[in-house]
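Attaching the record inline, Q. Sequence:
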Amino acid sequence: MVKIGAHVSIAGSIDRAVDRAEEIGCDTFQIFSRNPRGWRFKEISEEVAEEFKRKLKRSGMSPPVDHMPYLPNLATPKEDVYQKSVEALALELDRCEVLGIPYLVTHLGSHLDSGKEEGLNRTVDAIIKALSASENDVILLLETTSDSKNSVGGSFEDLAEIMSRVDRDDRVGACFDTCHAFVAGYDVRTEEGLDETMEKFDQTIGLERMMVVHLNDSKGPISSKLDRHEHIGLGEIGEEGFRLILNHPAIRTRPLILETPSDERRDDRGNIAKVRELAGED
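Structure, as predicted:
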């Protein structure tokens, strides 16, 4: 059985995310613990945290996953944004601990033309500082990116270098995004390409460090660097590609999180059903 879920809203109260995930048939789910498009946030009250954990335990869903907001940029050369980003990362790790969430997914950001090496240096430094400021058991997952201009983390080698330099195997893992990997040039839609991609991931990062998979089809073609998610099977990866992905042992056993659109064609419940069908469970 695949463990499939979606990114759900926390509107009203964080604990309501558990209700929404249950309603659409999730086995696992992802949230933003705060407004993803701003710097300001509310503290999580003890009452809300306990209700979140109570509902989670009752539901049987696991694991819950948190995602960093969009504004922090761990690779930025702008000192004011950089300091706010490090603080935001440390605070989000703390929020995960309060909620009992084991994984925090983060984008690594953009070096803004300061150069890839400088971007990697800033990212490594930011992660080391944030982990030191938030000493707990929450694991930070570095997400594979679409390799767009100035981005950090567009190759498995980038992620492996960051992980090696941070040197906290107990606190740092990876989140593999099917759309991002595909548009960055990793061909996950064919059996040969998928095997090569997983072998490359294992050789550079290590499959044991792939804790979560973001399962998204792609509006953009391979190597396009276009980060635009599509419904499962309706994009460039396609149904046959996802049938292969969902039956690959390196991916099938991981928590799978959908970040697909919700429109007149299909909603989260529909994409979950499509995943189960392509995984051979329908």
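The chain has one domain: 3-278. Residues 3-278 form a domain with the TIM Barrel fold (CATH 3.20.20.150).

More tomorrow.
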